[in-house]
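W.,

You were right to be curious about this one. When I first looked at the sequence I had no strong expectations either way, so I just let the prediction run and decided to look at it fresh. Below is the sequence, 107 residues in total, followed by the output.
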Amino acid sequence: MKKIDYRNQALKILPWICGNCGRDFSGKKLRELTVHHKDHNHKNNPPDGSNWELLCLYCHDNEHSRILDSEWLPSHNSDNDRSPAAYNTPFKNLNKLVSDKKNNEPE
């Protein structure tokens, strides 16, 4: 099935609403509605549209950006495995400095 064919098929069977933001599209704005493949496989085009959702240009770009971003993130979210965000700890001995200053002040 060609790209234009699955877009036309999707527009026939799916409501002209962005599946993410819910904006309604009709008339000239219909061109801003794109077909997104849920499994990200552009060759998987079942005639019933089960692998498609209609997304506006903005939401479609956002969806693909999120996928690209996730490839760069670590696969786990454990804070134990992370290195410290900052190596400089200027207030590490603050309590000692303050107590020393108080002890050295004249009464």
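Here's what jumped out at me. Residues 2 and 80 are 49 Å apart (CA to CA). And, maybe more interesting for your project: The beta strands are 33-37, 52-56.

Coffee later to discuss?

I.
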